[in-house]
Structure formats: C-alpha cells, structure tokens
Amino acid sequence: MKLLLQRVREAAVRVEGDTVGEIGAGLLVLVGMEKHDDHPAVTRMAERLVSYRVFSDEQGRMNRDVREAGGAVLLVSQFTLAADTRKGRRPSFSSAAPPELAEPLYLALIDAVAGHGVPVARGRFGADMQVSLINDGPVTFLLEL
C-alpha cells in the first residue's frame, strides 16, 4: 500500500461535474493498493496516517498530526501509485491489487481513519475523477508499508 499525502488548505474531488468529496484544511491522500495488502496492513496504515506529524506547531516545526491540527482527510483511490516505474518507458501495473481486492481495502481504510476521530471525505472508487487542491507548503510525503 502506498499513500501519497499532501497537506492542503482545501481539496475536492469531482465525478462527472458533481463534487463527491471535499475538505478544508487537512490531508489529501492518494491511495494505491497492492496485491499483498490486507486488512492488518490497512489498520497499520490508518494509524500511521492519522499520527503522521506534518502540521506546524507554535514554533513552526512539523510536530502536529491531522487530529491535533483539527484537519480532515480526503481519501482518493489511485491505482497508478502501485505502478512499477523502475525500467522502460511504460509503467507496469503487475503489483497493483485487482479491483475486487482493492475496493474493500480502500473502504476499510476510510472506516479505519474515521475510527480515529478524523473527519473523512472520499472519492469514488474506479471512477474518472478530477481532483483539485490548494497545496499547503507544499508538503508532500509518500507513506509505504
């Protein structure tokens, strides 16, 4: 599982012109599920996500997590994060989880993050989505298990 976290001032995801998820300040998280991922991995990654310190404290240091900052999380599935790009000019998606495995894990991640008391919005799994954001910093991290 790969999560690309972007600290944002606001973010939204639209499908066919309709807004399906939006947040104010918080984290836009692009989610790539891989074949070896399972529910224990989702639980670990959710804990890691909500406790990852990317928000500034009073001294300007990244010492606060999304809960402490009072932020929200927008989770958007993006299978292309699981691509192998180490060689050639075309990505290989052989390590990406198939939709029948990825979608239940994505939904479980949404529930797990919400279970930590963080407001959660989401994209629509498998849809053609348009994501907009105002990046804050910019601050971007790739989390992997």
From TrEMBL:
Motif Gly-cisPro motif, important for rejection of L-amino acids boundaries: 137-138
Record's subcellular location: Cytoplasm
InterPro entries, alphabetized: Daa-tRNA_deacyls_DTD, DTD-like_sf
Keywords on record: Cytoplasm, Hydrolase, RNA-binding, tRNA-binding
Swiss-Prot/TrEMBL catalytic activity: a D-aminoacyl-tRNA + H2O = a tRNA + a D-alpha-amino acid + H(+); glycyl-tRNA(Ala) + H2O = tRNA(Ala) + glycine + H(+)
GO terms, molecular function: D-aminoacyl-tRNA deacylase activity
Keyword Transferase: no
Cytoplasm in keyword set: yes
One of the Pfam families matching this protein, by short name: Tyr_Deacylase
UniProt domain comment: A Gly-cisPro motif from one monomer fits into the active site of the other monomer to allow specific chiral rejection of L-amino acids.
Subunit structure: Homodimer.
Function: An aminoacyl-tRNA editing enzyme that deacylates mischarged D-aminoacyl-tRNAs. Also deacylates mischarged glycyl-tRNA(Ala), protecting cells against glycine mischarging by AlaRS. Acts via tRNA-based rather than protein-based catalysis; rejects L-amino acids rather than detecting D-amino acids in the active site. By recycling D-aminoacyl-tRNA to D-amino acids and free tRNA molecules, this enzyme counteracts the toxicity associated with the formation of D-aminoacyl-tRNA entities in vivo and helps enforce protein L-homochirality.
Membership in a protein family: Belongs to the DTD family.
Name this protein carries in UniProt: D-aminoacyl-tRNA deacylase
